[in-house]
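Team,

Forwarding the record for the chain on the shared tracking sheet. I've put the sequence and predicted structure together so nobody has to dig through attachments.
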Amino acid sequence: MNLIVQGPDIPTPDLKHLARLAGATAIEAVTPTAFRLVAADPGQREAVAAYCEANRFDHGWVPAGRRITDFGLLVMDMDSTLITIECIDEIADMQGLKPQVAAITEAAMRGEIDFAESLRRRVSLLAGLDESALQRVYDERLQLSPGADVLLAAARAAGIKTLLVSGGFTFFTERLKPRLGLDYTGANTLEIVGGKLTGRVLGNIVDAQGKADWLNRVRGELGLAKDQVVAMGDGANDLKMMAAAGVSIAYHAKPVVRAQASYALNHVGLEGVPPLLGQGAAAP
């Protein structure tokens, strides 16, 4: 196994200590914030994890022979993963209801409330809001997470298709698709009548199972095996989708998600994903 260690600023003495701890034969720079400790001993997982946690480094054990081109599909959550905001919370802010809606969002992400029920409750609070508020959120508040451009460029270079699947809304996914050159998107549709939100969602809600269904459907269309799929998210609603992938990445995620993911990124941005996918994943 190779040990990937990542952080905004990793002192050389710490890298050397980790290399000795893991019995690695060499230290290679992968990107300015990621290092590969070659031929590391996975029997030292606990010691390495403790040292990295204490020093606020991200780390991951990667099979030595794996290459980023082994993968064919990257599936991403949108809110608080590919982008920095929770769109519904920002829409609610236009109504002066952000605290109420955000509290429901947080409970759903921790897995304390069924997602479909939480979404209906939150959307109902938006009834009567002018649809122009959605455009304002997109224009004024929506920002990509740090490193998103690096991740998407690496996926394109490796020939990996991209699927953005969200428990949020098509208003945002459909605008991000051409902007970012995404291959597939799926999300929920807000009902709008007479230029105003009705407080209802049209059709079946894209919940945890809905996200997994999207992943499996696109994977099938592309003729890929489970092991060729990477899925990343941050909330409980992403767990079924992540379980349907060969590699799952918890991005600045809730504890329940970090505990079940292949890898967790807590300190670096999305530029931290490609180094975990294997050789040939250096950032531009």
